[in-house]
Design goal:
Layout lengths: L3 E6 L3 H12 L3 E7 L3 H10 L4 E3 L2 H8 L3 E4 L6 H10 L4 E4 L7 H13 L3 E4 L7 H11 L6 E8 L6 H12 L5 E9 L4 E4 L2 E6 L2 E8 L4 E7 L7 E6 L2 E5 L7 E5 L15 H14 L8 H20 L3 E2 L8 H6 L5
Parallel strand pairs: 1-2, 1-4, 2-3, 4-5, 5-6, 7-12
Antiparallel strand pairs: 7-13, 8-11, 8-16, 9-10, 11-12, 13-14, 14-15
The protein binds nicotinamide-adenine-dinucleotide.
Nicotinamide-adenine-dinucleotide binds next to helix 1.
Protein backbone atom coordinates (compact mmCIF):
# COMPACT_ATOMS: atom_id res chain seq x y z
CA UNK A 1 0.00 0.00 0.00
CA UNK A 2 1.36 3.44 -0.99
CA UNK A 3 1.93 5.94 1.79
CA UNK A 4 1.06 9.44 0.64
CA UNK A 5 3.14 12.37 1.87
CA UNK A 6 0.79 15.27 2.63
CA UNK A 7 1.42 19.01 2.89
CA UNK A 8 -0.98 21.83 3.73
CA UNK A 9 -0.78 25.38 2.36
CA UNK A 10 -2.48 27.88 4.70
CA UNK A 11 -2.66 26.57 8.28
CA UNK A 12 -5.77 28.34 9.58
CA UNK A 13 -9.19 27.10 10.65
CA UNK A 14 -10.12 24.72 7.83
CA UNK A 15 -6.58 23.32 7.61
CA UNK A 16 -7.16 21.70 11.00
CA UNK A 17 -10.18 19.86 9.59
CA UNK A 18 -8.06 18.62 6.68
CA UNK A 19 -5.35 17.51 9.12
CA UNK A 20 -7.93 15.71 11.27
CA UNK A 21 -9.22 13.84 8.23
CA UNK A 22 -5.75 12.84 6.94
CA UNK A 23 -4.82 11.62 10.40
CA UNK A 24 -7.72 9.14 10.26
CA UNK A 25 -6.40 7.58 7.03
CA UNK A 26 -3.66 4.98 7.67
CA UNK A 27 -1.77 5.41 4.38
CA UNK A 28 -1.38 9.19 4.59
CA UNK A 29 1.32 11.03 6.54
CA UNK A 30 0.97 14.75 7.17
CA UNK A 31 4.58 15.91 6.95
CA UNK A 32 4.62 19.67 6.45
CA UNK A 33 2.62 22.89 6.46
CA UNK A 34 3.13 26.34 4.99
CA UNK A 35 1.70 29.44 6.67
CA UNK A 36 2.47 33.16 6.38
CA UNK A 37 1.68 33.98 10.01
CA UNK A 38 4.61 32.84 12.21
CA UNK A 39 2.59 32.26 15.37
CA UNK A 40 -0.05 30.21 13.55
CA UNK A 41 2.61 28.30 11.66
CA UNK A 42 4.43 27.26 14.84
CA UNK A 43 1.27 26.34 16.72
CA UNK A 44 -0.06 24.28 13.82
CA UNK A 45 3.26 22.43 13.45
CA UNK A 46 3.42 21.73 17.19
CA UNK A 47 -0.22 20.65 17.58
CA UNK A 48 -0.01 18.33 14.59
CA UNK A 49 3.46 16.99 15.17
CA UNK A 50 4.72 18.12 11.77
CA UNK A 51 8.28 17.33 10.74
CA UNK A 52 8.68 20.72 9.03
CA UNK A 53 6.85 23.98 8.50
CA UNK A 54 7.52 26.76 6.01
CA UNK A 55 6.64 30.39 5.43
CA UNK A 56 6.93 29.98 1.67
CA UNK A 57 4.99 27.17 0.02
CA UNK A 58 7.28 27.05 -3.02
CA UNK A 59 10.12 26.11 -0.68
CA UNK A 60 7.95 23.41 0.91
CA UNK A 61 6.99 22.07 -2.52
CA UNK A 62 10.62 22.01 -3.62
CA UNK A 63 11.97 20.22 -0.53
CA UNK A 64 9.25 17.83 0.60
CA UNK A 65 8.35 15.61 -2.41
CA UNK A 66 4.66 15.81 -1.51
CA UNK A 67 2.15 13.42 -3.07
CA UNK A 68 -0.95 15.37 -1.98
CA UNK A 69 -1.36 19.03 -1.08
CA UNK A 70 -4.34 20.67 0.62
CA UNK A 71 -4.80 24.31 -0.39
CA UNK A 72 -6.45 26.06 2.57
CA UNK A 73 -5.53 29.71 2.03
CA UNK A 74 -7.97 32.54 1.44
CA UNK A 75 -9.61 32.42 -2.03
CA UNK A 76 -7.22 34.68 -3.95
CA UNK A 77 -4.36 32.35 -3.02
CA UNK A 78 -5.96 29.18 -4.40
CA UNK A 79 -4.94 29.64 -8.04
CA UNK A 80 -1.18 30.04 -7.60
CA UNK A 81 -0.95 27.41 -4.82
CA UNK A 82 -2.72 24.84 -7.05
CA UNK A 83 -0.61 25.66 -10.11
CA UNK A 84 2.69 25.48 -8.18
CA UNK A 85 1.65 22.21 -6.47
CA UNK A 86 0.78 20.65 -9.83
CA UNK A 87 4.07 21.85 -11.36
CA UNK A 88 5.95 20.41 -8.36
CA UNK A 89 4.61 16.98 -9.30
CA UNK A 90 1.88 16.41 -6.68
CA UNK A 91 -0.42 13.54 -7.62
CA UNK A 92 -3.48 15.08 -6.00
CA UNK A 93 -4.66 18.46 -4.71
CA UNK A 94 -7.55 19.17 -2.38
CA UNK A 95 -8.30 22.85 -2.91
CA UNK A 96 -10.78 24.57 -0.61
CA UNK A 97 -13.85 26.32 -1.93
CA UNK A 98 -14.43 28.65 -3.63
CA UNK A 99 -12.22 27.07 -6.29
CA UNK A 100 -11.01 30.48 -7.51
CA UNK A 101 -12.10 34.11 -7.60
CA UNK A 102 -12.92 34.11 -11.33
CA UNK A 103 -13.10 31.75 -14.32
CA UNK A 104 -9.74 32.89 -15.71
CA UNK A 105 -8.01 31.55 -12.59
CA UNK A 106 -10.12 28.37 -12.62
CA UNK A 107 -9.08 27.66 -16.23
CA UNK A 108 -5.40 28.15 -15.42
CA UNK A 109 -5.72 25.72 -12.50
CA UNK A 110 -7.45 23.09 -14.65
CA UNK A 111 -4.86 23.41 -17.37
CA UNK A 112 -1.88 23.12 -14.94
CA UNK A 113 -3.41 20.00 -13.39
CA UNK A 114 -4.13 18.48 -16.81
CA UNK A 115 -0.56 19.18 -18.02
CA UNK A 116 0.99 17.60 -14.93
CA UNK A 117 -1.41 14.65 -14.56
CA UNK A 118 -2.58 15.93 -11.16
CA UNK A 119 -6.04 15.06 -9.79
CA UNK A 120 -7.67 18.27 -8.63
CA UNK A 121 -10.51 18.13 -6.11
CA UNK A 122 -12.48 21.06 -4.66
CA UNK A 123 -13.47 20.93 -0.97
CA UNK A 124 -17.22 20.70 -1.46
CA UNK A 125 -17.40 17.96 1.15
CA UNK A 126 -21.18 18.19 1.56
CA UNK A 127 -21.37 15.90 -1.49
CA UNK A 128 -20.61 13.17 1.06
CA UNK A 129 -23.20 14.24 3.67
CA UNK A 130 -25.41 11.18 4.27
CA UNK A 131 -28.63 13.19 3.86
CA UNK A 132 -27.48 14.65 0.51
CA UNK A 133 -26.35 11.24 -0.75
CA UNK A 134 -29.69 9.71 0.28
CA UNK A 135 -31.68 12.59 -1.24
CA UNK A 136 -29.87 12.05 -4.54
CA UNK A 137 -30.66 8.31 -4.39
CA UNK A 138 -34.35 9.11 -3.81
CA UNK A 139 -34.33 11.48 -6.79
CA UNK A 140 -32.75 8.77 -8.98
CA UNK A 141 -35.35 6.23 -7.84
CA UNK A 142 -38.04 8.77 -8.81
CA UNK A 143 -39.40 8.52 -5.24
CA UNK A 144 -41.05 11.95 -5.71
CA UNK A 145 -41.60 11.64 -9.48
CA UNK A 146 -40.15 14.08 -12.02
CA UNK A 147 -38.02 16.79 -10.34
CA UNK A 148 -39.22 20.28 -11.17
CA UNK A 149 -37.57 22.55 -8.61
CA UNK A 150 -34.53 22.50 -6.33
CA UNK A 151 -34.38 25.25 -3.72
CA UNK A 152 -31.31 25.88 -1.54
CA UNK A 153 -30.46 28.60 0.93
CA UNK A 154 -27.93 29.54 3.57
CA UNK A 155 -26.19 32.36 5.42
CA UNK A 156 -23.18 34.36 4.10
CA UNK A 157 -22.42 35.25 0.49
CA UNK A 158 -22.36 33.35 -2.79
CA UNK A 159 -18.59 32.85 -2.88
CA UNK A 160 -18.60 31.61 0.70
CA UNK A 161 -21.48 29.30 1.77
CA UNK A 162 -23.09 29.88 -1.63
CA UNK A 163 -20.30 27.89 -3.24
CA UNK A 164 -21.53 24.85 -1.27
CA UNK A 165 -25.22 25.59 -1.93
CA UNK A 166 -24.74 25.81 -5.72
CA UNK A 167 -22.51 22.73 -5.68
CA UNK A 168 -25.06 20.71 -3.70
CA UNK A 169 -27.80 21.69 -6.14
CA UNK A 170 -25.58 20.63 -9.06
CA UNK A 171 -24.91 17.36 -7.21
CA UNK A 172 -28.63 16.71 -6.62
CA UNK A 173 -29.24 17.36 -10.32
CA UNK A 174 -26.56 14.78 -11.24
CA UNK A 175 -24.14 17.49 -12.43
CA UNK A 176 -26.24 18.22 -15.50
CA UNK A 177 -25.21 21.36 -17.40
CA UNK A 178 -26.98 24.65 -16.78
CA UNK A 179 -28.51 26.49 -19.73
CA UNK A 180 -29.25 29.95 -18.34
CA UNK A 181 -29.10 31.90 -15.12
CA UNK A 182 -30.81 35.00 -13.75
CA UNK A 183 -29.79 36.70 -10.55
CA UNK A 184 -29.81 39.73 -8.35
CA UNK A 185 -27.55 40.85 -5.54
CA UNK A 186 -27.74 43.43 -2.76
CA UNK A 187 -24.51 45.33 -2.05
CA UNK A 188 -25.83 47.86 0.47
CA UNK A 189 -22.87 47.50 2.81
CA UNK A 190 -20.13 47.14 0.15
CA UNK A 191 -18.58 44.41 2.24
CA UNK A 192 -14.90 43.81 1.75
CA UNK A 193 -12.96 41.27 3.77
CA UNK A 194 -16.00 39.47 5.13
CA UNK A 195 -15.67 36.62 7.66
CA UNK A 196 -12.90 34.22 6.53
CA UNK A 197 -12.48 35.80 3.08
CA UNK A 198 -10.38 38.88 3.96
CA UNK A 199 -9.21 39.19 0.36
CA UNK A 200 -12.63 39.45 -1.34
CA UNK A 201 -15.78 41.49 -1.72
CA UNK A 202 -19.03 39.97 -0.48
CA UNK A 203 -22.63 40.87 -1.29
CA UNK A 204 -25.20 41.17 1.53
CA UNK A 205 -27.85 39.08 -0.22
CA UNK A 206 -28.03 37.07 -3.43
CA UNK A 207 -30.81 35.35 -5.34
CA UNK A 208 -30.30 33.14 -8.35
CA UNK A 209 -32.50 31.21 -10.74
CA UNK A 210 -30.78 28.41 -12.65
CA UNK A 211 -32.38 26.57 -15.56
CA UNK A 212 -30.67 23.26 -16.40
CA UNK A 213 -30.62 21.59 -19.82
CA UNK A 214 -32.65 18.66 -18.40
CA UNK A 215 -35.49 21.07 -17.57
CA UNK A 216 -34.91 21.13 -13.79
CA UNK A 217 -34.97 24.62 -12.30
CA UNK A 218 -33.24 25.76 -9.14
CA UNK A 219 -33.45 28.75 -6.86
CA UNK A 220 -30.67 29.77 -4.50
CA UNK A 221 -30.95 32.38 -1.77
CA UNK A 222 -27.94 33.52 0.24
CA UNK A 223 -27.24 36.15 2.83
CA UNK A 224 -28.43 37.75 6.00
CA UNK A 225 -32.19 37.55 5.28
CA UNK A 226 -32.08 34.03 3.82
CA UNK A 227 -33.04 31.11 6.07
CA UNK A 228 -29.74 30.48 7.85
CA UNK A 229 -29.14 26.74 7.69
CA UNK A 230 -28.10 24.59 4.73
CA UNK A 231 -31.67 23.84 3.82
CA UNK A 232 -32.87 22.28 0.57
CA UNK A 233 -36.37 21.61 -0.74
CA UNK A 234 -36.65 19.19 -3.64
CA UNK A 235 -40.01 19.47 -5.37
CA UNK A 236 -41.14 16.63 -7.61
CA UNK A 237 -44.30 15.93 -9.60
CA UNK A 238 -45.40 13.39 -6.95
CA UNK A 239 -43.89 14.65 -3.71
CA UNK A 240 -41.29 16.62 -1.82
CA UNK A 241 -37.95 15.94 -0.10
CA UNK A 242 -36.62 18.33 2.57
CA UNK A 243 -32.94 18.35 3.62
CA UNK A 244 -31.57 19.90 6.85
CA UNK A 245 -34.67 21.22 8.58
CA UNK A 246 -34.24 23.99 11.18
CA UNK A 247 -35.35 21.55 13.93
CA UNK A 248 -32.32 19.34 13.13
CA UNK A 249 -34.12 16.71 11.05
CA UNK A 250 -31.55 15.85 8.35
CA UNK A 251 -33.98 14.42 5.78
CA UNK A 252 -37.67 13.77 5.28
CA UNK A 253 -39.86 12.97 2.31
CA UNK A 254 -43.52 12.73 1.42
CA UNK A 255 -45.06 11.46 -1.80
CA UNK A 256 -48.36 10.25 -3.21
CA UNK A 257 -47.29 6.75 -2.06
CA UNK A 258 -46.44 7.59 1.59
CA UNK A 259 -48.79 8.15 4.46
CA UNK A 260 -47.44 11.59 5.48
CA UNK A 261 -43.74 12.38 6.14
CA UNK A 262 -41.21 9.53 6.29
CA UNK A 263 -37.65 9.77 7.65
CA UNK A 264 -35.32 7.69 5.42
CA UNK A 265 -32.52 5.77 7.18
CA UNK A 266 -29.08 7.35 6.76
CA UNK A 267 -25.61 5.76 6.73
CA UNK A 268 -23.37 7.90 8.97
CA UNK A 269 -19.91 8.91 7.73
CA UNK A 270 -17.25 11.62 8.12
CA UNK A 271 -17.60 13.70 4.91
CA UNK A 272 -14.13 15.23 5.29
CA UNK A 273 -12.48 11.83 5.57
CA UNK A 274 -14.55 10.64 2.60
CA UNK A 275 -13.38 13.50 0.37
CA UNK A 276 -9.73 12.63 1.13
CA UNK A 277 -10.31 8.89 0.60
CA UNK A 278 -11.97 9.71 -2.71
CA UNK A 279 -8.91 11.75 -3.74
CA UNK A 280 -6.65 8.75 -3.09
CA UNK A 281 -9.01 6.52 -5.10
CA UNK A 282 -9.09 9.07 -7.95
CA UNK A 283 -5.26 9.05 -8.03
CA UNK A 284 -5.00 5.25 -7.92
CA UNK A 285 -7.82 4.60 -10.39
CA UNK A 286 -6.64 7.42 -12.70
CA UNK A 287 -10.06 9.04 -12.77
CA UNK A 288 -11.69 12.29 -11.70
CA UNK A 289 -12.79 13.01 -8.10
CA UNK A 290 -16.56 13.21 -7.40
CA UNK A 291 -15.87 16.89 -6.67
CA UNK A 292 -13.35 17.43 -9.48
CA UNK A 293 -11.84 20.71 -10.60
CA UNK A 294 -14.16 20.75 -13.63
CA UNK A 295 -17.20 20.25 -11.39
CA UNK A 296 -15.91 23.05 -9.17
CA UNK A 297 -15.61 25.25 -12.26
CA UNK A 298 -19.23 24.46 -13.21
CA UNK A 299 -20.43 25.78 -9.84
CA UNK A 300 -18.17 28.83 -10.05
CA UNK A 301 -19.54 29.58 -13.54
CA UNK A 302 -23.10 29.63 -12.14
CA UNK A 303 -22.05 32.04 -9.37
CA UNK A 304 -20.30 34.30 -11.89
CA UNK A 305 -23.44 34.14 -14.06
CA UNK A 306 -25.61 35.32 -11.13
CA UNK A 307 -23.25 38.27 -10.67
CA UNK A 308 -23.19 38.92 -14.44
CA UNK A 309 -26.99 38.84 -14.62
CA UNK A 310 -27.14 41.39 -11.83
CA UNK A 311 -24.45 43.56 -13.48
CA UNK A 312 -26.24 43.61 -16.83
CA UNK A 313 -29.85 43.24 -15.60
CA UNK A 314 -30.55 40.40 -18.03
CA UNK A 315 -30.75 36.65 -18.35
CA UNK A 316 -27.33 35.09 -18.94
CA UNK A 317 -26.82 32.07 -21.17
CA UNK A 318 -24.11 29.52 -20.42
CA UNK A 319 -21.31 28.88 -21.24
CA UNK A 320 -20.31 32.23 -19.84
CA UNK A 321 -17.88 34.18 -22.00
CA UNK A 322 -16.52 36.53 -19.32
CA UNK A 323 -13.41 35.76 -17.31
CA UNK A 324 -13.54 38.58 -14.75
CA UNK A 325 -15.54 38.61 -11.50
CA UNK A 326 -18.52 40.97 -12.09
CA UNK A 327 -19.00 41.46 -8.35
CA UNK A 328 -15.65 43.25 -8.20
CA UNK A 329 -16.61 45.75 -10.92
CA UNK A 330 -20.06 46.28 -9.38
CA UNK A 331 -18.47 46.97 -6.02
CA UNK A 332 -16.07 49.45 -7.58
CA UNK A 333 -19.06 51.16 -9.17
CA UNK A 334 -18.07 50.22 -12.72
CA UNK A 335 -20.76 48.80 -14.99
CA UNK A 336 -19.58 47.03 -18.13
N1 LIG B 1 -15.31 23.49 3.04
C1 LIG B 1 -15.74 24.18 4.08
O1 LIG B 1 -16.76 23.87 4.69
C2 LIG B 1 -14.93 25.36 4.53
C3 LIG B 1 -15.04 25.84 5.85
C4 LIG B 1 -14.26 26.93 6.22
C5 LIG B 1 -13.42 27.55 5.31
N2 LIG B 1 -13.36 27.07 4.02
C6 LIG B 1 -12.50 27.73 3.01
O2 LIG B 1 -11.14 27.56 3.36
C7 LIG B 1 -10.39 28.72 3.01
C8 LIG B 1 -9.67 29.22 4.27
O3 LIG B 1 -10.64 29.52 5.26
P1 LIG B 1 -10.26 29.47 6.82
O4 LIG B 1 -11.53 29.57 7.57
O5 LIG B 1 -9.36 28.36 7.13
O6 LIG B 1 -9.47 30.85 6.95
P2 LIG B 1 -8.34 31.22 8.01
O7 LIG B 1 -8.19 32.70 7.97
O8 LIG B 1 -8.64 30.56 9.32
O9 LIG B 1 -7.02 30.51 7.43
C9 LIG B 1 -6.42 30.83 6.21
C10 LIG B 1 -4.91 30.82 6.45
O10 LIG B 1 -4.22 30.89 5.20
C11 LIG B 1 -3.02 31.61 5.43
N3 LIG B 1 -2.49 32.07 4.16
C12 LIG B 1 -3.01 33.01 3.33
N4 LIG B 1 -2.21 33.13 2.23
C13 LIG B 1 -1.20 32.25 2.38
C14 LIG B 1 -0.06 31.92 1.60
N5 LIG B 1 0.20 32.52 0.44
N6 LIG B 1 0.80 30.99 2.08
C15 LIG B 1 0.58 30.37 3.25
N7 LIG B 1 -0.49 30.65 4.05
C16 LIG B 1 -1.35 31.59 3.62
C17 LIG B 1 -3.46 32.74 6.35
O11 LIG B 1 -2.37 33.34 7.02
C18 LIG B 1 -4.42 32.01 7.29
O12 LIG B 1 -3.77 31.53 8.45
C19 LIG B 1 -11.39 29.72 2.40
O13 LIG B 1 -11.36 29.62 1.01
C20 LIG B 1 -12.74 29.24 2.95
O14 LIG B 1 -13.84 29.53 2.12
C21 LIG B 1 -14.07 25.99 3.63
Amino acid sequence: MNTYRIGIIGCGGIAREHARAYNKIPNTKLVAGSELDAERREKFAKDLNLEKSYENYNEMLKKESLDIVSVCTWPKGHCDAVIQSAKAGCKGIMCEKPMATNLYEADQMLSACRDNNTRLAIGHHHRFDPQLVKAKELIKERAVGEITLLWGHCSLDLMNNGSHVVDMINFLNDDQPAEWVMGQIDIRNKRQGYVNHPDMYAEDMAMGRICYKNGVRATVELGEFAPQNWQFHIIGSDGIIDVNLPDGTPLRMMSKDTNGWVLPKLDPCDPREEEMLELIKAIEEKREHISSGQIGRNGLEIIMAIFESSRNRRLVELPLDIKDNPLESMMKGVSQ
